[in-house]
């Protein structure tokens, strides 16, 4: 489907070294198709029970299609998995992920320091600002009311047989 308008897609995965990169691209579905964040966190804690090696990282990939060109931006936020849930803020694995240089989980961090990896820590200011500038330039076009933003996890695209330059980025 070609609309002539820019298309923006983003996905973030959690990669745990002791688990050979799991949950990876299946981060949101780690404990099953209909799993909740609580179930995903419980499965991760169970998988790491007794494990001292808890290094992990969030990896975010942003794909922007503009003027028949695909631009990809990748960012990584290194850290480790806590031994227990901590904090009430955020979502997903935030109560378990402690970013490098901190003793707090994302869920424990004050709001002014808390960032979703895709919007801050993993992508970094340079990559995110480039995406913003490109979108701002595209915004000068006239956008019809029917244009909407839709989030489609990258693994769903691959499962549906959609392939492109993003193949293997998160694998």
Describe the structure.
This protein is an alpha+beta fold and 171 residues long. 19% of the residues lie in helices and 23% in strands. Strands 2-1-3-4-5 form a 5-stranded antiparallel sheet. A hairpin with a 6-residue loop joins strand 1 and strand 2 (23-24). The radius of gyration is 17 Å and the shape is elongated.
Mean pLDDT: 74
* Strand arrangement across the biggest beta sheet: 2-1-3-4-5
Query: What is the number of beta strands?
Result: 5
Task: Tell me about the largest β-sheet.
Answer: 5 strands, antiparallel
What is the helix content? 10-25%
- Structural class based on helices, strands and sheet pairing: alpha+beta
Stretches with pLDDT under 50, minimum 5 residues: 116-124, 142-152, 160-171
Helix and strand arrangement:
Layout: E1 7-16, E2 23-24, H1 37-47, E3 55-66, E4 69-81, E5 97-99, H2 124-139, H3 154-159
Antiparallel strand pairs: 1-2, 1-3, 3-4, 4-5
Give a quick rundown of the structure.
The protein is of the alpha+beta class and 171 residues long.
């Amino acid at each position: 489907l070609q609309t002539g308008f820019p298309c923006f897609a983003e996905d973030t995965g959690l990669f745990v070294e002791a688990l050979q990169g799991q949950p990876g691209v299946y981060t949101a579905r780690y404990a099953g198709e209909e799993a909740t964040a609580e179930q995903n966190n419980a499965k991760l804690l169970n998988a790491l029970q007794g494990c001292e090696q808890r290094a992990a990282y969030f990896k975010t990939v942003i794909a922007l299609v503009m003027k028949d060109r695909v631009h990809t931006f990748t960012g990584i936020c290194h850290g480790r998995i806590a031994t227990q849930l901590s904090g009430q803020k955020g979502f997903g694995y935030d109560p378990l992920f402690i970013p490098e240089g901190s003793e707090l989980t994302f869920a424990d961090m004050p709001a002014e320091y808390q960032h979703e990896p895709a919007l801050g820590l993993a992508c970094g200011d340079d990559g995110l600002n480039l995406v913003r500038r490109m979108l701002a330039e595209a915004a000068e076009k006239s956008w019809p009311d029917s244009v909407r933003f839709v989030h489609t996890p990258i693994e769903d695209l691959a499962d549906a047989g959609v392939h492109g330059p993003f193949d293997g980025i998160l694998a």
